[in-house]
Write a structure and sequence with these properties.
800 residues; alpha/beta; 33 helices; globular; binds N-[ethoxy(oxo)acetyl]-beta-D-glucopyranosylamine; pyridoxal phosphate binding; carbohydrate metabolism; Pyridoxal_P_attach_site; Glyco_trans_35
């Protein structure tokens, strides 16, 4: 382990030559990246070992965070900075004549996820390690990440494979010794012993070997290094039964081939269910194995282990742990159920009906016969119990049981098998209690609680925005870097004109960086002194990118019509991937690109109005996009965005939220006040009433602006084809505008005018940005993790 720059240089040089058998100068940037990554991983290995040993010797409880997604982003800079060796390494490389940035740019984002839920998991890993909590991640080692997005010459999204491990992954270590045998298909043979106890044997199963790859999750300025375990499916050393050999190989291969490119609709594919059981079964097995190394039995599993289910994707943990406890360790049902409930808790991330997982029981019976038996028994016992609880409402049982009409409702199973359930923002949790899970609240009044999301201030401020970090350090010292409460120390300085000026300077530098990035990526030139207004998130109807682009069209039409009407220079940036099967979302992407092509090339308006769609939104892009933005668009239909976390990142970097009262926007608003954000649109309560008499066509008829904007969707204005955007028009008019875009249009136009007005007064604007930064400490995921540890996991910190 190197201790200084001299030792680093010598070791880096030696390792490169040894690994590649040529002079250092002849190695490629990718080879240098792999060598450096391996060195950093090895550097952390002693801490990694100590963390495992100390956890065992302190007999500490540990958490396993089960998630189908971890959107980690690049690890190199974050690991170097968290370990405190960034300066040694970058200066050492410079002395060797090597560009650090060139090496860092070799790393591909591990795209092991879709969006919010996956990125949240990654922020949690950073915060847990940094706060000395032992929290292990459990996921799948997808060979292809979420697709890479290209935009073709028609403005359409094209998906390309994301082979993120093509050059290798220096962070992972293969742990063959911990491989697990996972069984699919086959039949269950039931027998009775002399005591009359039942025994279950899984016969004619198809075996898959789950091989773990461990990645270190390195805390900031602490010795805690946790583990993210990624499972990879390999053919087992067991002859496949009754099945074609080549088919078997390709079936196994398919399990870890790719991330399901969908974060909103459940495609109901068999393969997805296979993925879910695969990493659940392997993960549960390794938990049990680890526990039994240090404890005589599983009796105290719930005292020493907490399993967090990141949405319902890993909910099969509940029947799988029952299976292991009963079939492999001889527990009776009641005792096993008690252990499961003590151990498991569940986080809900959406109220969108189409994203609530449901599986035909037949699939489960076929693929996982023993699990199906256990689920049926859970359902049967639940019905008997719930019936007794609420005899006045016999229907309650059928509304809440996991099995309804041959379909398994995953959320219902999660609620029954967990000791705690949480929403991810205040308003979201209220909707869970009063709406989605209202029935369950009758049966379990204290089950549901709130844990407002957070983001790691290291990646999302200190590392991605060193200019702002320096300003904060110079103004309030460095206490805020270790303790999010100290963000508020900035409040004392928000009225200081010199701090305001310094902030505007930082923002300008970041806007210029962003402009250079946009130019390199798209060839578009944006004006770094214009107001940069960004909407970056998955493309979904409820997030209403459509409302944003409609407002842009309105401004364009108005300026074309009235030469005396001009807006202050305004740049609208969009970044969004659409699920590959989501036609409407793809159509919105095409619309944005067609609008951009026309407007950006119009000499009448292009000096003041610019629209750019940035292809392939990912964590790495956000690290430049967020610090360079002035305005944060958070304009979902009230009640639909569970929380949002992009809103928190923009706020932390001094952008002003332009948003609806939805998700965590509500909390942002109450922290900063209406002087420091712009809130518009119908509230949840208003929409709850409006839905009964809403007529989108009236808005079209009565508001000339809406009429003119919508007509461009069906008259070929954008690309010559009248039918191109008919689907969007139909959604708004024929299908009566599911997400109330037209209902909020007028308020949104006014909100846009308001934000432009505020932007014009530079010092008040800067003051607002500073208030936002000062209040953003609450949205540190260090705070969120503390709350999970205290309220859900009952978790103590590791003491070194
Ligand atoms: C997202 C929510 O849409 C977002 O509002 C929230 O901030 C984020 O989770 C983290 O809690 N949901 C997903 O990413 C998702 O896949 C379907 O939801 C299960």
């Amino acid at each position: 382990m190197f201790r200084n720059k001299r030792e680093f240089k010598a070791e880096f040089h030696r390792r490169l030559v040894e690994a590649y058998g040529c002079e250092m100068e002849q190695t490629s940037p990718a080879e240098k990246y792999l060598t450096l990554g391996t060195m950093v991983r090895d550097y952390a290995s002693n801490y990694w070992k100590d963390t495992k040993n100390e956890t065992a010797s302190q007999d500490l409880k540990q958490v396993y965070y089960f998630s189908m997604e971890f959107l980690l982003g690049r690890m190199l800079t974050s690991n170097l900075k968290n370990l405190g060796i960034y300066d040694i390494v970058t200066e050492g490389l410079q002395e060797l004549g090597i560009s650090y940035q060139e090496i860092a740019d070799q790393e591909n984002d591990p795209g092991l996820g879709n969006g919010g839920l996956g990125r949240l998991a990654a922020c949690f890993m950073d915060s847990a390690a940094s706060e000395n909590y032992v929290v292990n991640g459990n996921c799948i080692r997808y060979r292809a990440g979420l697709f890479r997005q290209f935009i073709n010459k028609y403005g359409e999204q094209v998906e390309m494979p994301d082979m993120w491990m093509r050059i290798g992954n220096p962070w992972e270590i293969r742990k063959l010794k911990h491989a697990v045998d996972v069984k699919f298909y086959g039949q269950i043979e039931v027998s009775y012993d002399e005591n009359g106890d039942m025994h279950f044997r899984h016969r004619h199963a198809s075996h898959v070997l789950a091989v773990p790859y461990d990645m270190p999750m390195i805390g900031a300025h602490t010795k805690t290094v946790n583990t993210l375990r990624l499972w990879s499916a390999e053919p087992a050393d067991v002859a496949p039964r009754d099945r074609d050999y080549r088919q078997y190989l390709s079936d196994v291969e398919a399990i870890c081939l790719n991330v399901y490119p969908d974060d909103s609709t459940e495609e109901g594919k068999y393969l997805r269910l296979k993925q879910e059981y695969f990493f659940v079964c392997a993960g549960v097995h390794s938990i049990v194995e680890t526990h039994l190394k240090n404890h005589p039995s599983l009796d105290n599993l719930g005292e020493k282990v907490a399993i967090q289910l990141n949405d319902t994707h890993p909910v099969l943990v509940i029947p799988e742990l029952m299976r292991v406890l009963m079939d492999e360790y001889g527990y009776a049902w009641d005792k096993a159920w008690q252990i499961v409930k003590e151990t498991v808790s569940y986080t809900n991330h959406t109220v969108m009906a189409e994203a609530l997982e449901k599986w035909p029981m037949q699939y489960i019976e076929n693929l996982l016969p023993r699990i199906a038996m256990i689920i049926s028994e859970i359902d049967r016992r639940y019905c008997a119990w719930a019936w007794q609880q609420c005899p006045d409402d016999p229907d309650l049982v059928s509304r809440t049981r996991p099995l309804r009409d041959g379909t398994l409702h995953m959320a219902a199973l999660a609620l029954i098998g967990s000791h705690a359930v949480n929403g991810v923002a205040g308003i979201h949790t209220e909707i869970l209690k009063n709406d989605l899970f209202r029935d369950q609240v009758r049966l379990y009044p204290h089950l549901i609680q709130n844990k407002t999301n957070g983001v790691t201030p290291r990646r999302w401020l200190m590392y991605c925005n060193p200019e702002l970090r320096k300003l904060l350090d110079d103004t309030i010292g460095t206490a805020w870097e270790k303790d999010y409460h100290h963000f508020e120390d900035l409040l004392k300085h928000v009225d200081d004109p010199s701090v305001q000026e310094a902030f505007l300077d930082v923002k300008q530098v970041r806007k210029e960086k962003l402009a250079a990035y946009v130019r390199d990526l798209t060839g578009e030139i944006i004006d770094p002194s214009s107001m940069i207004d960004t909407q970056a998130k998955r493309l979904h109807a409820y997030k209403r990118q459509l409302l944003n682009i409609m407002q842009v069209i309105y401004l364009y039409q108005r300026m074309k019509r009235d030469p005396s009407f001009r807006i202050a220079p305004h740049t609208y940036l969009f970044a969004a991937k659409a699920a590959s099967s989501y036609t409407f979302a793809k159509s919105v992407i095409k619309l944005i690109n067609c609008v951009a092509a026309k407007i950006n090339n119009d000499p009448d308006t292009r000096d003041v109005l610019k629209v750019v769609f940035l292809p392939n939104y990912c964590v790495t892009m956000a690290e430049t996009l967020v610090p360079g933005s002035d305005v944060s668009e958070q304009i979902s239909t009230a009640g639909k965005e569970a929380s949002g976390t992009g809103n928190m990142k923009f706020m932390m970097n001094g952008a002003i939220t332009l948003g609806t009262l939805d998700g965590a926007n509500v909390e942002i608003d109450s922290l900063v006040g209406r002087d420091n954000d712009v809130i518009f649109g119908h509230t949840v309560e208003e929409l709850n009433t409006l839905q009964y008499h809403y007529n989108a066509y009236d808005y079209y008829q009565q508001d000339g602006r809406i009429h003119d904007v919508l007509d461009t969707l069906i008259n070929g204005f954008w690309n010559g084809s009248a039918d191109e955007f008919r689907m969007i028009y139909d959604e708004l008019i024929t299908r009566n505008d599911t997400y109330f875009v037209l209902a909020d249009f007028d308020a949104y136009v006014k909100a846009q005018e308001e934000i432009a007005r505020r932007y014009a007064s530079r010092n008040t604007w800067a003051r607002s940005c500073l208030v936002n930064i000062a209040r953003s400490g609450y949205f540190s995921s260090d705070r969120t993790i503390e709350e999970y540890a205290h309220d859900i996991w009952d978790l103590q910190k590791l003491h070194f």
